[in-house]
TrEMBL record:
This is Recombination protein O. It comes from the Bacteria. One of its GO terms (biological process) is DNA recombination. It holds the Pfam family RecO_C. One of its GO terms (cellular component) is bacterial nucleoid. The gene is recO.
Length: 256
C-alpha cells in the first residue's frame, strides 16, 4: 500500500466489520487505489445511530475517505459514498454464502485477486436465482485460480498426452490427481491414487470458462452430477491456493 498523504480516498468494497471499544467498529476493506489493490483495516467511530455506520455495511462498494496516521499506522474512515449497495444479496441464503466465500478468498489472498472479477461476481449474484448463483460461484472460483496462476492444465493428459479438446467426446471421464497436481485420463490413473474425477460436461464447463467470454460462459448448463464434481474439485483447489482451510468452504456444502 502506497499512500502519499494522511488524507486520501479510493474505491473500496466493505468485507467485514467487528466491534471494538465503546460501540465503535473495525472495518476490513478491499481497496483499489489507482493500479493497486490491497486489504485495509480501518476504524469507524460513532454509535449505532451514526449516518456513516449505516453506509458502511458488508458487500457495499463505494468511495471511501480515509485519514492515515503514519506514526501509529492507524487508519480512520472519515466518509463513505455508496455506489453499489447490493442489498439483494441478503435476500437469499445461497447469495449470502456465495458472497461470504468471495470475501474469505479476498482476505486469504491478501487482496491480490482481481478487483474487476470480484465486483462483477457480487453484482451478478445479487440479481441471480439460487441456481444461477451456484454456477456463478464455480465460474468465479475457476477464474480466481486462473488469475492467480495456479489453475492446473486441463488441455491434455499429463501421462498419455491425449488432447482433450480434440477427443473429449470420446473420453468418458478425466481425473485431477491431488499428488501430481495434474489432469489425466481416468484410465491413466492408478486405482490407489487420490483423485477428483470429472465427466465430459464438467470438463467442458472449465474449458469454456477458460477460453470464452463471460457472456458465453453464463449460457452453460450443468447437470447436478457435473455441478457436484466441479464443486468438490474447485473447493479443494481454492483451499490449496489459500494455504489454509476456509471456514466458508467447509460449512457451505449443505447449502450449496
Amino acid at each position: 500500500m502506497c499512500v502519499a498523504s494522511r488524507s486520501w480516498y479510493a474505491q473500496a468494497l466493505v468485507l467485514s466489520l467487528s466491534a471494538f471499544g465503546e460501540g465503535h467498529k473495525s472495518v476490513t476493506l478491499f481497496v483499489r487505489l489507482q493500479d493497486e489493490a490491497f486489504i485495509l483495516r480501518a476504524a469507524l467511530f460513532g454509535g449505532a445511530q451514526s449516518k456513516l455506520r449505516g453506509l458502511v455495511i458488508p458487500y457495499t462498494t463505494g468511495r471511501v475517505w480515509v485519514y492515515s496516521n503514519p506514526r501509529t499506522r492507524m487508519h480512520k474512515i472519515v466518509d463513505f459514498s455508496v455506489t453499489h449497495s447490493r442489498v439483494a444479496l441478503r435476500d437469499s441464503i445461497v447469495r449470502v454464502w456465495c458472497a461470504a466465500i468471495c470475501v474469505d478468498i479476498i482476505e486469504a489472498s491478501k487482496g491480490t485477486i482481481s478487483w474487476t472479477l470480484v465486483t462483477a461476481f457480487l453484482d451478478g449474484i445479487s440479481l441471480s436465482s439460487d441456481g444461477a448463483c451456484k454456477h456463478a460461484l464455480l465460474r468465479f472460483l475457476w477464474r480466481v485460480l486462473i488469475g492467480e496462476g495456479v489453475a492446473p492444465n486441463i488441455t491434455s493428459c499429463s501421462r498419455c498426452a491425449t488432447q482433450y479438446a480434440v477427443s473429449i467426446s470420446g473420453v468418458s471421464r478425466v481425473a485431477y490427481l491431488t499428488q501430481g497436481e495434474s489432469f489425466v485420463c481416468a484410465a491413466c490413473a492408478a486405482p490407489a491414487e487420490h483423485r477428483f474425477e470429472l465427466n465430459a460436461e464438467a470438463w467442458h464447463f472449465l474449458n469454456t470458462v477458460r477460453e470464452c467470454t463471460p457472456k458465453h460462459a453464463r449460457t452453460l448448463v450443468l447437470s447436478e452430477e457435473s455441478y457436484c464434481e466441479l464443486k468438490r474439485l474447485l473447493f479443494c483447489l481454492i483451499t490449496k491456493m489459500s494455504g489454509k482451510k476456509l471456514k466458508t468452504l467447509e460449512h457451505a456444502h449443505a447449502v450449496l
